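dude i think i finally got it to work??
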Amino acid sequence: MPTRSRSLSVLAGAAVLSLSLVPSARGGPAPAPRPAAESAGTLCAPAGVLRGGHGQRAAVSLCAAGGPRGLSVSAPATCTASRAKARDACLTSGTWTARRHGAAVASGVLPGADAAYPGPGTYEFTARVRARSVPDGVELRGTVRAALTLTAPKPAATHRVEVDRTALRPGTTTTLTYTVHQDSAAGDGSARFGLIGAEGSGAELATDDDRCVHPVTGGPGPAERRRYTLDCALTGLRPGRPATVRVRVTLGPACSTVVSKLGYWLPRGQEVFTGGMLVGPTVGCDRP
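look at this
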């Protein structure tokens, strides 16, 4: 549940729906007052109403919070079944996109904190939502929109990842040199660095670095290692003392990008959730 809720502007046509088996939402757009600033925390705004063909209804809000753990977005909703006056709990899921000045700056799934927080500002959130009542009776899908003004400051960067190349070519083996920096005294010097090629592309990642392994997947049977991924456990990071990882990427006839990510600790006593995830550079693929 959000710690703080405040009604903000609803974009014109807040209940813009794409329902395949039920009618679209009806009614004119509500007045759109200018979004108001809010102190750091979770902010909510009415985002739209999903309607079914037999009176089903789901009133959806969009909530967002930004901070060191990323941009977190959820879509709390209240469901009403056909001809029922009682309001039921509503489970929501789906995807969302945040735009600022018309440009997409973040996206993710509902609910979740799976995107980097771009910093304070007014964002236009669009969400494709599936709403289901508990107990059953409402099952609706649609698009809702709301504007939220977030004021939490953008967290200072503590880590960064650099790579010496920007593109790969099919049918070649390329050596990539990644440099992982810790720019802040905050942290214990430990980080988990991941590299991932496109599954099914035939890409293979290899290294002579003992800190890196191919992750093991599968059930209780024989272990299977994913050759298109690498998982590296880094220690001893300090400001001014980066870690270097060299990786050989072999591509077959198919193109594959290589994405990277870094998980790190920022311990604060016995608090548990004090780490972060950083999106590293993506190495693209160019055909000759």
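The mean pLDDT is 83.
im so relieved honestly
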